[in-house]
Structures are given as C-alpha cells and as structure tokens.
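[Discussion] Sanity-checking designs against the backbone

I'm trying to build intuition for which residues belong where. Below is a structure token string of 164 positions. I'd appreciate it if someone posts a full sequence so I can compare it with mine line by line.
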C-alpha cells in the first residue's frame, strides 16, 4: 500500500511540476516582454529571443527539479539523483555558453563603438564591401539601408574588426 501511495504522490508531483513550469515560464516571458528592454533592438528574426531564452531556461530548471523530486518520491537512490543533477547543470552551462557566444563580442564592440562615438545615425558606413546609411545603432548590431533600399543588420563585432 505504501508503494502505491508513493507512486500516486510521484505522479502528482510530476503533473504539478510540469504545470508550474509552463505557468511560471509564460508569466516570466510576459513580464520580460512588458519591460521593453532597449538593450536589444527587436527585429522580425530575433523578436523576443532574450525573453524566450530566459523563460525557457527557468521552465527547464523547474522541470529538472520536478524530475528529481518525482524520482526522490519513488525512492531512487541519492547517487542517481546527484548524477542527474550534474548532467542537468552541465547541459544548462553548455546552453548558456552557446546562447551568449555571439552576444559577448558584439556587446564589447558595441560598447567601444558607442564610447568612441564611431557610429552615428544618419552617417554612411562601409563594412565588408557593404555600404549604407546607418538608421539605428544598439549595443549588439548596427542597422543600415543600402542604396537599393535593403535593410541590413551588421553585428558590431564586424564593424569593429573591419579594416576597410
């Protein structure tokens, strides 16, 4: 009888954890979007990428805690739980590194370009044989419009490293 109650409790923990993960993730995403951070300019390809990344990370952390609590309720040995936790932490670290690997050089370049006032809206810019008028500049990228009227997003690290 104890084992049946333990299984029912594990199922309840699992279901509540999944629901809580989704609910907290959606609320966090809506909250972060409502902040309308100006650090990252929104465009159609990357709209709300930062907010989605953070909310998904929180959701998966809640899922992982749910899995560990469920397994603990089923009396899985602590060693197995520690192994699962370490694997999850390693996956999160890899996820964070892969998420931010392109942002860090662009942020550094954007900060230096802003500090040196090297980029100004309305001025013309040539990078890697791409020439256009700067229409917006933020910490990650510079948006230009070329002579054909095409909007081009250039990562700031390319501007900083370009020698042309």
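Best answer:
Here's mine. Compare freely.
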């Amino acid at each position: 009888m104890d084992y049946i109650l333990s299984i029912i409790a594990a199922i309840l923990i699992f279901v509540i954890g999944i629901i809580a993960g989704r609910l907290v993730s959606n609320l966090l995403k809506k909250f972060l979007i409502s902040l309308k951070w100006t650090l990252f300019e929104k465009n159609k390809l990357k709209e709300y990428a930062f907010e989605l990344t953070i909310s998904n990370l929180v959701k998966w952390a809640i899922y992982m805690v749910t899995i560990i609590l469920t397994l603990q309720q089923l009396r899985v040995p602590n060693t197995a739980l520690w192994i699962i936790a370490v694997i999850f932490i390693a996956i999160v670290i890899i996820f964070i590194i892969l998420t931010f690997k392109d942002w860090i050089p662009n942020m550094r370049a954007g900060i230096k370009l802003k500090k040196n006032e090297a980029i100004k809206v309305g001025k013309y810019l040539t990078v890697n044989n791409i020439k256009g008028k700067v229409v917006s500049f933020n910490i990650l990228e510079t948006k230009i419009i070329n002579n054909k009227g095409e909007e081009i997003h250039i990562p700031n690290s390319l501007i900083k490293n370009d020698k042309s």
